[in-house]
Specification:
Layout: H1 3-22, H2 25-29, H3 33-56, H4 66-80, H5 82-91, H6 96-115
Helix pairs in contact: 1-3, 3-5, 3-6, 4-6, 5-6
Length: 123
């Protein structure tokens, strides 16, 4: 992601935080549903992009091992609980720094698996 996109992401999280502080969640989901849905969808999309960019940075998997490594990676990602923590950081806390920290942790886990190291749950 570019610096401008990261800035936009932080801004969107700030908007979500202000909205939640000033308007009840019920009103956000009914009276302001269209805008609220657009905002949360944009945050969801950008969060996914942040995770992909961070995790895939420098990742190389040999073609012969790809299927096995993908299965291991997906299993460990689910087990780690990081995706739930990312969601909480973005949508409950509106904390971009925490999202980036979790993305970094996820990158470390995935890269260890690709190198053949055993994943140890340290979270």
């Amino acid at each position: 992601m570019t610096e401008a996109e990261i800035s936009e992401y932080r801004s969107l999280l700030g908007t979500l935080k202000r909205n939640k502080e000033k308007v009840s969640l019920e009103r956000l989901k009914t009276e302001y549903q269209k805008g609220y849905d657009q905002l949360t969808q944009k945050i969801r999309s950008m969060t996914r992009e942040i995770l992909q960019d961070e995790v895939l940075k420098g990742l190389q998997i040999e073609r012969a091992q790809a299927d096995q490594k993908y299965m291991e990676i997906n299993a460990v990602i689910k087990e780690s609980g990081i995706l739930k923590m990312v969601s909480h950081a973005a949508f409950t806390q509106q904390d971009a720094d925490q999202v980036f920290e979790y993305a970094s942790q996820l990158r470390e886990i995935v890269h260890r698996i690709v190198k053949g190291d055993q994943y140890e749950r340290r979270l």
